[in-house]
From TrEMBL:
Leader sequence residues: none
InterPro entries, per the entry: MAPEG-like_dom_sf (IPR023352), Membr-assoc_MAPEG (IPR001129)
Residue ranges of the TM segments: 7-28, 72-98, 119-141
Pfam families: MAPEG
Origin species: Asticcacaulis benevestitus DSM 16100 = ATCC BAA-896
Name of the protein in question: MAPEG family protein
The UniProt record lists the keyword Mitochondrion: no
Keywords recorded for this protein, A-Z: Membrane, Transmembrane, Transmembrane helix
First-listed, main subcellular location of the protein, grouped into a coarse class: membrane
GO cellular component term, pick one: membrane
Location(s), subcellular: Membrane
Length: 145
């Protein structure tokens, strides 16, 4: 099971890499849009930043989204590993979560049609909920054999 645990922990690292990539994307797109709009970092205000085009705002909005549910994912994965519950199904669920969050990030940053984004967001939460429920049931089963 050590390999399953490592694969689950690798999913956390993949989410961290996604978060880092979105931070770079938000800085590059925001600075580029600010340059085009004649806004400098010393003159930027919340009001002027809100006027930037969506292609510059969407990556920042997604970066913020990555600070919401993914930290719970990190905690759940760590708990599963620490409890010794890591198995192929948990590995598959963890990586499915990462894939859905990657798809959500790309969709929100590039296309941002809300209805499709909601499906990706909801699906990632469903996967996370299954992980939480399964881990809790496993824990209860081991406490009351």
């Amino acid at each position: 099971m050590a390999n399953a645990a490592n694969l689950m922990l690798a999913a956390i690292l993949a989410m961290g890499a996604l978060h880092f990539a979105m931070m770079v994307w938000l800085y590059v797109s925001r600075l580029w849009a600010m340059k085009q709009a004649g806004i400098t970092t010393s003159t930027a205000t919340y009001a002027t930043m809100r006027k930037l085009p969506n292609w510059a705002l969407n990556p920042a909005a997604n970066y913020n989204n990555l600070t919401e549910a993914p930290p719970l994912f990190y905690a759940v994965v760590i708990v599963i590993v620490l409890l010794g519950q890591a198995d192929p199904l948990f590995v598959a669920l963890a990586w499915l979560y990462v894939i859905l969050r990657l798809a959500h990030s790309l969709w929100q940053s590039l296309i941002n049609i809300i209805s499709a984004r909601m499906v990706l967001f909801g699906a990632s939460w469903l996967v996370l909920a299954v992980m939480i429920l399964r881990a809790a049931l496993n824990l209860l089963a081991s406490a009351y054999p």
